[in-house]
Structures are given as structure tokens and as C-alpha cells.
Design goal:
268 residues, 14 strands, 39% helix
Amino acid sequence: MRGFRLIATDLDDTLLDDNLEISPRTRKALQKAAEMGCVVTIATGRMYRSARPVALDLGIEVPIITYQGALVKNARSGEVLAETPLPFSLAVEVLAEGYRAGVHMNLYFNDCLYVDSVTEAGTGYARLAGIEQHPVGSLVKYLAAVRNNPTKILYIAKPELLDSLKTDLAAKFSGSLYITKSKPNYLEFMHPQATKKHALENLAGSFGIAREEIIVFGDSYNDLDMLEWAGMGVAMGNAPAEIRDKADYVTDTNNRDGVAKALERFLD
């Protein structure tokens, strides 16, 4: 591969097509890169338990970046490279803000998904991620009972409401939380160091790989920091214009082998 030693790819709307599958062409391109000695990993907002089956299917034996970077864990051995949860007090505030706004909320703790009740939004998310949701009543009361730091909190609502909330809460929690959108109707809250860029930088450092030797793939706002940081940031053709404009290269869409076409282009 032309100077690249590490490939990191987002999952939804990037590596996976709209049927949540990896095309044969993309699978072959990743396999070829691995055979050439390139480290291949995943960088996703998904839970570890949701991303791990994809990693195992691809034969990835290095740590994968999950929860936007809040948990970096080896898919094969289960060894944790980094874990950066939300501080308890801030998590309670985020939950309180979500209840005031009337949004559906996902609370992630011990790699499990907790909701206050079963809703259409929550069920749709669980189906997409291939995981089980656990209704526990008030998430504020639940978190107070377990008295521990959750990995992440996610709001699900209409894009217009989330855009407004993002503006307001980014000002309120400035410097204290990392707030990003992974899909138009998903607003996510993590520790300020729980970003894909930060996790990728640490992972690459553990292999002695420089940023110039890294190629990354993404489609959304939560991918932006790693797209701008890596030696080659590749945006999918289905990414919003703001993401495509800031990438080093724009490939085809997730439904048209975008990852494979870029890898084939940059393979020697």
C-alpha cells in the first residue's frame, strides 16, 4: 500500500451497505491490504458487542475503536487498550436535559444498552445494532442506583430538534463533554477524550505508526476529527457535503463499494 500501514473504517454507511453487509469486493480489498502487512481496524460509534462480530468476521485481531473512542478493545482477546467513560455527575445532567427535551435516550453501561421504556426509536436502534435493549424505568434513578460512570449517552429524535440541542448543550458543557452527531437523528455524548481521532492516535502509537501512514474512511460528523487528522481521510460519496469538503479524497457510496474503490486506487 502506498505508504499506508493502518486502515481504520467506520461501519454504518461506510463499510456496511444499507443492508448492513460488507460486499465481496470490499472484503477482498481489505484482505489484500492485510496480506500486504497493513493493520486493519474499525472505528465506530457502535457498542463493542455490536462491532465485535464484524471484526471477527473480517479476521481483525487488533483493538477496535468503539463508542466513538470511549472503549478500545481487542476483538479476539478481549484485552482493553483504553476506556474513557462519562463522569457520573455529567451523565446525570445529560439525562436530565434529555428528559426535559422529551427525546428517546440510550444509556450504555458495561457494554449493555439501557432505556427507560421500549419505544419505536429504541427498538429501531437495537435492531440496527443487533443488540438487546434493557428497559429499567427512569435512567436517572437507574444510574444513581448503580453509581458508576456510563460509557456513552445517545439521544434519538428529529434532526431539527437535535441540531438545536447540540448548539445549546455544546455551550453548556463546553470542554467537559464530546458531543457529536453520528446520524441525522442521533446525538451522542462522551468523555471529551473519547473521540475517534484520539483513540486512533493512541492505537497507531502502540504500533509505532505515524499519522501520515494512516488511511481512514467515514461518512458523518463523528468521523470528521479522524478524517482531518489521518494522513489520508476518505469520505464516502453518501457523506454530507460538509464532510466531503474536508476530506482528502471522496470515494463512491457505501452501496457502491466506496471503501474498496479507494483502497484499489491507493494500492500499489
